[in-house]
Amino acid sequence: MPILNQVKQNILHGRQLDTADVERVMASLLSAPVDFADIYFQCSHFESWSLEGGLIKEGNFSIEQGAGVRVVSGEKTGFAYSDILELPQLLAAAENVKAIVRHGQNGRVKVSSFAAPERQALYAAANPLLSLPDQEKIELMLRLDREARRLDPRVEEVMVSLSAVYEQVLIADSDGGLAADIRPLVRLNVSVIMQENGRREQGSMGGGARADYGFFFEEDRAMDYAAEAVRQASVNLQAGEAPAGNMVVVLGPGWPGILLHEAIGHGLEGDFNRKGTSAFSGRIGERVASPLCTVVDDGALPGRRGSLNIDDEGAPTRRTVLIENGVLKNYMQDKLNARLMGLPQTGNGRRESYAHAPMPRMTNTYMLPGEHAPEEILASVQKGLYASNFGGGQVDITSGKFVFSASEAYLIENGKITRPVKGATLIGNGPDVLTKVSMVGNDMRLDSGVGTCGKDGQSVPVGVGQPTLRIDGLTVGGTSV
Amino acid sequence: MAARALIFYRDSILQNQNQINQYQDRINEFKAIVQQLLDEAARQGASAAEAALSVDNGLTASVRLGEVETVEHHCDQGLGVTVFFGRQKGSASTNDLSPASLADTVRAACSIARHTSGDEYAGLPEAEDLATECVELDLYHPWQVDAEQALQVAKECEDAALAFSAEINNSEGATVNSHHGVRVFGNSLGFLQGLHSSRHSISCAVLAGAGDRMQRDFWYAVARDPERLQAAREIGEKAAARTVARLDARSIGTRQCPVLFAPETAVSLIGAFIGAVSGGNLYRKASFLLDALDKQIFPDFVRIDEQPLLPGGMGSAWFDAEGVATRARDLVSGGVLRSYVLSSYSARKLGLRTTGNAGGVHNLMVAANGPDFAGMLRLLGTGLLVTELMGQGVNRVTGDYSRGASGFWVENGEIQFPVEEITIAGNLKTMFQQITAIGEDIDYRGNIRVGSILVERMAVAGN
């Protein structure tokens, strides 16, 4: 197990710790009658570069390290962490958290590696910060600036950001498991501001992956981001007032899959369903979407932004069917909620860092393709809105109401896209929006690797995807009443 | 039964009169580390540098349905350094405060600076802008609460919510948070200062109804001084009242109508204004208020002033994120924009002088011209009261505004029924001009203090 050994070497041995010390901390946690406990070691290297006004304006490098210890007893969680990776601090953190349960037996666990068969890693265990000389990172950003300005003289300002994370984690749990992962993550973004006759609009495009910086050079991706940002800004310069009211909406493929993330994804996370606070609580086996819809969450896609070899509790990620032919099949679970609900863990236990306790989170959430060509779907609409790009979204888990904000949209009239309209927020009801899906495209696409999901103050990278979809009624928040 | 009574946790907060003295010792210790970073930067050849060190300790305790749910102990530390080689700049940060790590961090910042472009506007603030007068701002009030007591407060809060109405049938729990910390900042112009502060909050979220009728809402209080927190019981009752009021919400037809933003949502309108007059967005031309200085952007009754030295304020500070002295001033008076929100970098880019706002604004006060909340409802007459906004939906470049909303339909100043699954849309430039009243029902919790805001007309999209 080369990754495990490498991470043990880097995180533990580099700080005069070894597995015997991990066992001592675990033994301390288990001296209280807990259901389970875990220790999460993490070391992250992060860099970011930014360009604006044609200058490489800023660069930042940071190192964060620490360990979080957690005990769980029934529905109770005790959690503490330390930035200092030394035995006394870790034992002190353990002492703090186990106070949440009664004193009791002595537990002793010998940690070993997980018995689960190692599968092919989903990404390379290399440090992406070192995958390109700094000078070439700079040159890439300057080239993107020139390219955006070259493509359209109306471009007034170009902003480029480039970043990479090299994260190593080591997870010890009270079943004796010891698991490790090395997680690269890169991200590039190009934004432009374009001006014409005093009117200004923006366009933005980016991407990323669990890969090294080489990702942006494959298939000319970086240059495509610049071209796409310019294209979006120029479309927005032509955009008129967006319509207001309930209408047929066609969503484009890829990133508009944020619909699934907001409308159903969060509502299917185990914690909300255990507590009965989700609009989807107790609805497994019920029809919640049209039979055309099958939606999965898959943390095991190679190289994707939302992918992980193991989740932050050491469980292998996997593909979980959330909705199959319109019927609700599964929730997404972490260890605590799976135990309390008597359901299997699904590899969705995630945390922002060692300083945050895990909870059920999405990975890559997407809808499988259907039968229709996207042109057929557009041709079927007499009057409606085609939204091909979005900013963010939000959901009220309990009422099921969700929003997502279009940043590129067009009117559809008589089966044809006629003219661009300004961005507008779309609002709907999670438990019934997918019942209104009347056509599903054959053009399923995952997003370009830009998503970050926030829940209870914790941010994690995620992916979304979908084919072109026709939804027979969604409220569009334009200004044209 | 809960093991609540059996929780033994002693906060690391020092519990005696020596506390302040010990904190002063800690600030001195941190000042020494920051000075070491600055010295190391000079040793490695930087022509100028700034560095910060902060430590934050805290406790989060939550209760759900009367049982202990989580107890979390927080202890965050971090240091960051920015170095300049002439007009080139690089930054690095870490949470490892060991001596070896200090030198490595400075080295990383220097290495980055060699790759950034020379930027004629980059550099430390002008020496004469740096804060010299230390002001006691009354920001440090540790809460002598251990986990058991915090859980008791949370339980009292949630109990009040659960008992408020028979309709309340589930809970996301109540949470008590108590944080205190120290931040020291210095630069190579000789500025070296520290601040200690505390921040405490109580929050509660409960549910009512079942199936498609289910609703949730919440309430919270936050303060520097735990004595000034709203009573736990009142927070629970307010959360419950808000939840029950949402039952049987429905959409309304698409229309144009006046919109009253309740104080908790009005804050975001002022936030959008601040974003639009912030230097970074102005010099990037990413603002709908370019060249708006000295222009009428609100009706004449609107006054917005910044009061950075307010004792106990959530946004109070006597120096900003780069050591510049903060100053009380009008941002808007007579509805006219009097000043932008600038750091020394954005000020130089715009040919102006810093306003002491590196890192953001410090206590914005929006003056009321209208009555209390009930009076504001009467002024609204017939229209939409918005109590919650969803999603981003604000385009900073154009001012285009389109957000999900929920709230209440109001007729003749009386609330008729709860509303959800609608959007409100307009353009912020117009919305600002169409503000007809700002209430005296001011939300004092945050960095922006504003009452409810009445906007004459917006597009509402519904069913």
Structure, described:
Chain A is an alpha+beta fold. Chain A has 10 helices and 23 strands. Chain A has helices spanning 2-12, 19-29, 87-98, 134-151, 221-238, 258-265, 270-274, 335-341, 374-379, 430-433; strands spanning 36-52, 55-73, 76-82, 112-113, 155-173, 177-196, 199-209, 244-251, 295-298, 319-324, 327-328, 349-350, 359-360, 364-367, 383-395, 401-413, 416-421, 425-429, 437-440, 445-446, 451-455, 458-466, 469-477. In chain A, a hairpin with a 2-residue loop joins strand 10 (319-324) and strand 11 (327-328). In chain A, helix 4 (134-151) packs parallel to helix 5 (221-238). Chain A is globular. Chain A starts with a helix and ends with a strand. The model of chain A has no long low-confidence stretch (mean pLDDT 94). Chain B is an alpha+beta fold and 463 residues long. Chain B folds into 2 domains: 3-245, 2-Layer Sandwich (PmbA/TldD fold), CATH 3.30.2290; 255-461, no CATH class. Chain B is built from 9 helices and 17 strands. In chain B, helix 1 packs across helix 2 (99-113) and helix 3 packs parallel to helix 4 (232-245). The relative contact order of chain B is 0.12. The model of chain B is unreliable at 1-17 (pLDDT under 50). Chains A and B meet through strand 2, strand 3, helix 3, helix 4 and strand 5 of A and strand 2, strand 3, helix 2, strand 13 and strand 14 of B. Strand 2 (55-73) of chain A pairs parallel with strand 3 (88-94) of chain B.
Give the gist of this structure.
The complex is a heterodimer of chains A (481) and B (463). Chain A is 21% helix and 39% strand. Chain A has 481 residues and is α+β, with helices and mostly antiparallel strands.
Q: Describe the biggest sheet of chain B?
A: 6 strands, antiparallel
Mean pLDDT of chain B: 94
**How many extended strands of chain B?**
17
How would you sum up the major sheet of chain A?
7 strands, mixed
Taking the alpha carbons of the first and last residues of chain B, their distance comes to 47 Å
Number of domains of chain B: 2
